[in-house]
């Protein structure tokens, strides 16, 4: 009888190990990648027609400044809103122009993630401009993710320069 009791205890321990081992093990969670950035069709957006604002008028470089984001964020900082306020004011006074908002990221993260984050950054600026009265059809966005860095060193000071929205202009 003692032998059956020992066998029963071993059997119960084995079942307990199997049950707790599977219940406590890390579950494989299927993480969906953020949606890939929607790169407009060439017919929708001809990025080649957009130019640096300073190419139109050197004084525009003071208005169309890049706006910057915190790591892994796409919310607008107060200084970014101030810049966008100036951009909106200029666009209201110059209705024959359209703006392209380029979303950029630093090199950390996958290409897919950075393209999606760059798109969110560009769309944050676009939504803010629309809220200020700029017609949606005058604002295009594109994400370059990490593909067009402003700085190539591998440190925080450099990465912070790459987490940005950049603005280009074109006539309607």
Describe the structure.
This protein is of the alpha+beta class and 172 residues long. The chain has five helices and four strands; from the N terminus they run ααβαβαβαβ. The chain has helices spanning 2-24, 53-56, 78-93, 111-131, 156-162; strands at 67-68, 97-104, 139-145, 164-171. It has a four-stranded mixed beta sheet with strand order 1-4-2-3. Strand 2, helix 4 and strand 3 (139-145) form a beta-alpha-beta unit. It is globular. The N and C termini lie far apart (93 Å).
Features:
172 residues; alpha+beta; 4-stranded mixed beta sheet; 5 helices; 4 strands; globular
Can I get a quick summary?
The chain is α+β, with helices and mostly antiparallel strands.
User: Main β-sheet, in a few words?
Assistant: 4 strands, mixed
User: How many beta-strand runs?
Assistant: 4
**Strand-residue fraction?**
5-15%
Uncertain residue ranges: 16-43
Give the overall pLDDT as a whole number. Answer: 83
Written as H for each helix and E for each strand, in order along the chain, the element string is: HHEHEHEHE
Structural class: alpha+beta
């Amino acid at each position: 009888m003692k032998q059956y009791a020992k066998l029963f205890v071993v059997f119960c321990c084995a079942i307990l190990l199997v049950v707790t081992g599977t219940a406590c093990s890390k579950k494989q969670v299927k993480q969906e990648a953020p949606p890939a950035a929607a790169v407009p069709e060439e017919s929708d957006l001809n990025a080649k027609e957009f130019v640096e604002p300073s190419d139109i008028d050197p004084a525009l470089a003071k208005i169309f400044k890049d706006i910057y984001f915190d790591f892994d964020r796409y919310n607008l900082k107060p200084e970014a809103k101030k810049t966008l306020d100036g951009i909106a004011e200029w666009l209201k006074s110059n209705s024959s122009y359209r703006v392209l908002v380029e979303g950029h990221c630093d090199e950390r993260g996958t290409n897919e993630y950075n393209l999606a984050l760059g798109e969110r950054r560009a769309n944050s600026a676009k939504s803010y401009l629309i809220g200020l009265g700029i017609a949606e059809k005058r604002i295009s966005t594109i994400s370059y993710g990490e593909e067009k860095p402003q700085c190539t060193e591998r440190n925080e000071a450099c990465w912070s320069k790459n987490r940005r929205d950049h603005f280009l202009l074109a006539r309607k």
